[in-house]
Amino acid sequence: MIEAKSDPTRWWNGLRFRLVFMMSLALLPIGLIAVMQTRAVSEKVRRNTELALLAEIEQVAYRERLNIQRAFGVADSVAALVGTFQEDPDTCSARLMSIMEQSDRFSFLGIIPSSGVMTCSTAGATEQLTSRPRFQQLVGSKERLVRVVPDAPISGGPVINVSIPLFDADKVVGRVSVSIPHSPPVPMSDRSKNDAFKSNALVEVLTFNDTGEILSSLGERDQLTALLPQGLTPANLTEHRARAFSTLDRKGNDRIYTVVPVEADQLYILGIWDAQTGVEEQSGDRLPPILFPALMWLTSLAVVLFAIHRLVSRHVRSLRRQMVRFARDRKVSEKASGSRDMPAELHEIQTSFNNMAYSIIRDEATLEDAVHEKNVLIREIHHRVKNNLQLISSILNMQIRDAQSDETRSVLRRVQDRVLSLATIHRDLYQANSAGRVNVGNLLKEIVQKSVEIGAETATAVRVETDIDDVHLYPDQAVPMSLLAAEAATNAMKYVDAREGTDPWIRVTFKACEDKTCVFRFENSARVNETAGSTGMGARLINAFAIQLGATIEVESSDEAYTLTVTFTAADFSDEG
């Protein structure tokens, strides 16, 4: 089973990515601490924003409390003087009117008797109050009361009504009532001109009573519900202390709510603020705190990448270019760029590579010289052997001419054919430039041609057909193959014949398959009793040569043709030394 290997050229296998990844892991604890600190800073900024906005609502509530205290002061003054002018309603009303005209803060002053018939007031007429809501509860109370009246009939609008009891001995005989006009702290149309609120984050300011009833607001009443906090109503916000909190409104917007009691259990002011604007105003022009850990991480990575490039990457790339150039052109740069400031470890690698490259170049030069010298010697040997064999062939030719009997000449001629075959092989080895291999196809063509020329007197009448491929073999197989073909051709020319009316023929085929299997087939027309008088020497030689080839032989003989098929596998070069 072959295991899948990671491709080293993928970007995530690069040095930069790995160092960035490891640096990110190293910075992770510091980053988490920075994020936690940033979160704490953000929470602190938000809390400071809430307190700052609460302080603005406190200032508004303080002004309202001051007006209420002044109203109580006026009520106490009227209660102290009530006995001197109460008997005369006109004088009493005029006196109250003169008090109210001294300040524009009040819209009504009056003395309410227990009977409910008010004759002394700034209303200018007698008022019957017994039918008014909460009248009996009001005149029977011994407490100093502050209540908000959304629609006061005498003042003609919403007022804050302040009243104190009048006593005769320990009995309550009436109340002194002072009304203060009540309106939103900042009119919506004048918000840009009014400096009551310093923050631009204000969305809405409204007042409500202890039952949660909204008394006044800056905007339209039908839009107030969407601005209220999710899951809360004004009645849930009635507490004796001021507070600020952040939550979402009923539309899902982030809001800051500030609640301040103007008068406990009576009147409250609720400020609604846009949280994002408020926080931005509180933090000023500072960048968001979350940018700090991000900038720290990016800065660290930039330093790491610069250090990698300066100390490692550019030197590694330079070394890689040198290796590629050496592998392609076998050239070594004398001085690599940036080698002066190269770290010691990489400089050692650079030096080792240069030494290795020079050593390889020297070894290759030595090896090339040795191979060249060996080739020269081998070619010289083949050349000398070829010359010697040709000399032997010449001597045999002289012996053939001097021979007296035909049998002697025939034997010598066959020996000469074999010698010439060997000379032809050595000639091709001498001339070959293909790593010592011989084109056996060319040899076979030449051997067949010469065998036909010198084989017999009838050779000119023999029809020769060849289908021979170019097959390159090493000498260990080329020599026996050529000799085998020469013996087959000699035997064929010796016994070739045909029936009357036809010409004798020889057909030679030599093919190489893709699996290195080679097939040699030699066919010739034959006459009946073609082996009569044969010594069998050719057949024995063919078998001997086939053994050297490691081949198998198949012989098919009929009255019309003789076929020899030799099959063997082309061998690879093997060093027997």
From TrEMBL:
<keyword id="KW-0547">Nucleotide-binding</keyword>
<dbReference type="Pfam" id="PF07568">
    <property type="entry name" value="HisKA_2"/>
</dbReference>
<keyword id="KW-0067">ATP-binding</keyword>
<keyword id="KW-1133">Transmembrane helix</keyword>
<protein>
    <recommendedName>
        <fullName>histidine kinase</fullName>
        <ecNumber>2.7.13.3</ecNumber>
    </recommendedName>
</protein>
<dbReference type="GO" id="GO:0005524">
    <property type="term" value="F:ATP binding"/>
</dbReference>
<keyword id="KW-0418">Kinase</keyword>
<keyword id="KW-0472">Membrane</keyword>
<feature type="domain" description="Signal transduction histidine kinase subgroup 2 dimerisation and phosphoacceptor">
    <location>
        <begin position="380"/>
        <end position="450"/>
    </location>
</feature>
<keyword id="KW-0597">Phosphoprotein</keyword>
<keyword id="KW-0808">Transferase</keyword>
<dbReference type="GO" id="GO:0004673">
    <property type="term" value="F:protein histidine kinase activity"/>
</dbReference>
<keyword id="KW-0812">Transmembrane</keyword>
<feature type="transmembrane region" description="Helical">
    <location>
        <begin position="290"/>
        <end position="312"/>
    </location>
</feature>
<dbReference type="InterPro" id="IPR036890">
    <property type="entry name" value="HATPase_C_sf"/>
</dbReference>
<dbReference type="InterPro" id="IPR011495">
    <property type="entry name" value="Sig_transdc_His_kin_sub2_dim/P"/>
</dbReference>
